[in-house]
Amino acid sequence: MAGQGSAGNVIAALASFFIPGLGQLLQGRLFAAAFMFILASIVWVVTFGTLGWIIHLWSVIDAAVWRRKW
Fold first, then answer.
1. Is residue 14 part of a domain?
2. Residue-level pLDDT at 7
3. 0.90 exceeded by the pTM?
4. Most exposed: 24, 39, 60, 70, by fewest CB within 10 Å?
5. Count of domains forming the chain
6. Does residue 15 contact residue 63 with C-beta atoms inside 8 Å?
7. Residue 1 placed within a domain
8. What are phi and psi of 65, to 5 degrees?
9. What would you report as the CA-atom Rg of the chain, rounded to the nearest whole angstrom?
10. How many Cα atoms sit within 13 Å of 53 on the Cβ side?
């Protein structure tokens, strides 16, 4: 991925919109992907679907603004 604002990050953000953590997985960040997916799943279930959108939105924004450190 080229970095923040690149087409790759837009695709990653769209992927995370549908499944939290999928965008991070596309970016090659396995730990972040697993963390986002598990955390979003737990929060969706525990709060009966009321607060899970916060983690879900965080996953989308994180995928959109992530920049590879060289």
1. yes
2. 83
3. no
4. 70
5. 1
6. yes
7. no
8. -105, 0
9. 12
10. 2
Mean pLDDT (the chain) is 88
- SS3 state at 66: coil
CB 40 within 8 A of CB 21: yes
State residue 51's pLDDT score.
86
Distance CA 48, CA 30 (A): 27
The token pair that represents 52 in the structure block: 């899970």
Write the DSSP assignment of 44-64 as a string of letters: HHHTTTSSHHHHHHHHHHHHH
Does residue 29 lie in a domain region? yes
Residues 25-64 pLDDT 10s:
999 999 999 999 999 999 999 988 788 889 889 999 999 9
The one-letter amino acid code at 9 reads N
